[in-house]
Amino acid sequence: MKKIILALATLVVFAACSQNPYSDKSLAKSFALNVDSSLQQIATEKGVRISMKIHAPNGKSYYTGYDGRTKQPITDFGGTIDIGSCSKMLTATAVLQLVEQKKISLDTKLVALLPNDSAYKNLHVINDTDYISSITVLQLLNHTSGLPEYFLENDDDKEIAQHGDSSLRFRPWQLVELAKKTNKAGFKPGTGFKYCNTGYILLGLIIEKISGIKYEDYIQQHILDPLNMKHTYFATTNSPANRAPGHFKGKPSGMPATLAWSAGLLVSTLDDMDVFIRNWNDAKLFNAETANMVKTKNFSEMGMGITYGMGVINLLGTSYGHAGQTFGFQAYMAILPNGYSFCFGVDDASVSAWDLAFLAVTAIKDSK
Predict the structure, then answer these.
(1) Phi and psi, residue 301, nearest 5°
(2) Of the candidates 95, 239, 98, the residue with the CA atom closest to the CA atom of residue 166
(3) Longest dimension (CA), the chain
(4) Alpha helices in 123-258 (DSSP H)
(5) 362 DSSP assignment
(6) Cα of 356 vs its chain's centroid, Å
(7) DSSP secondary structure string, 247-308?
(8) Which of 1, 11, 135, 307 has the fewest CB atoms found within 10 Å of its own CB?
(9) Closest-CA residue to 341 (of 268, 270, 274)
(10) 313: how many CB neighbours lie within 10 A of its CB?
(11) Stretch (H or E) spanning 81
């Protein structure tokens, strides 16, 4: 009986997607049965809204999505998504642009770029030895600095309870100070890997110092405008009052955008995310030499065979991209070597982005 019900559900989803004006019909034949039933099942079980886009090398696109709250397929894929740490790809791109211009190097020391004795005091101390002076730009980019995280680690519920007020305002150096109060340095710079938002806050400050303009202005002028990403904006400066809320474990959640800043403050759409990841892959934002380096050099093991480089995740050798989580949303954007790209957004941070990313990659590999 369960198999019959599942088959009927799959046919219903396939029928809905085949009528989806956003999706190319030829791609629907490849992806509808592979993606839609699984996506609908996750959305229904979790009670969340999931939207996804798959873009083929020939330029055709397939959109799919389901709202587990209303129990209806999604028919409008133009809505905005808090992309969280996917923003790190743009921050890293900005830094690599400055490296190309020889304004900084990957080996440049943090303290040479941002001297700040009071902020660094006791920030990176291990066994009574201070290692802050040895941290480099590269180590900030690929999370090998050993810096402490300013979020509460391994306890999202407590983090939301402590900072889950969207009216709170934080300045970048305040987040560095918060890191000292919240966690301890993990290891000597360059000797390990630990994902760390603090490093990307410092990279945002470096971008401002070297470029002479605000981080948001640099990203706008050197990435968003050249790629015509008109529907991507900064949650700190341009957030509509009526925007749909994010959730955590089914409950509405609104974290202050300034708590993420250059580590994850961007809001985007499926189409704009796709534009970015494809242009990033095609070396439209930096030269071919940098594009090759960012895909092949300075990766560290994150776990489960997933590796992290200079602002980019290699998902088990299948794709390059980045995941994002904002305590209210999940997002992912990636591109495969065969030219397919995908991106998705979920309006509840408690849903696994990895599961959906594996679903998309598998569907693309199995497509005819």
Answers:
(1) -75, 125
(2) 239
(3) 68
(4) 137-141, 156-163, 172-182, 197-211, 215-219
(5) H
(6) 14
(7) EETTEEE---GGGTGGGT-EEE-HHHHHHHHHHHHTTSSS-HHHHHHHHHSS-EEEETTEEE
(8) 1
(9) 274
(10) 23
(11) strand 81-82
In whole angstroms, give the CA distance from residue 100 to residue 292.
Answer: 13
Q: Mind listing the pLDDT tens digit for each residue in 300-355?
A: 999 888 999 999 999 999 999 999 998 888 999 999 999 999 999 999 988 999 99
For the chain, domains (ranges, CATH) are: 2-73 (no CATH), 81-335 (3.40.710.10)
Span of 55-59, 158-162, 354-358 with lowest mean pLDDT: 158-162
What region does 122 belong to: left with phi over 0, alpha with psi -120 to 50, or beta? left
Percent of the chain with pLDDT over 90: 72
Do 33 and 64 contact (CB within 8 A), yes or no? Answer: no
**pLDDT, tens digit, 9 for 90 and up, residues 140-179:** 999 999 999 999 877 777 877 787 677 788 999 999 999 9
Given a contact cutoff of 8 angstroms between Cβ atoms, the answer to whether 103 and 95 are in contact is no
Global confidence as pTM: 0.91
SS3 (DSSP) at 62: strand
State the Cα angle at 343 between 55 and 268, rounded to 5°. 115
Residue type, 298: N
Residue 262 contacts residue 87 (beta carbons within 8 Å): yes
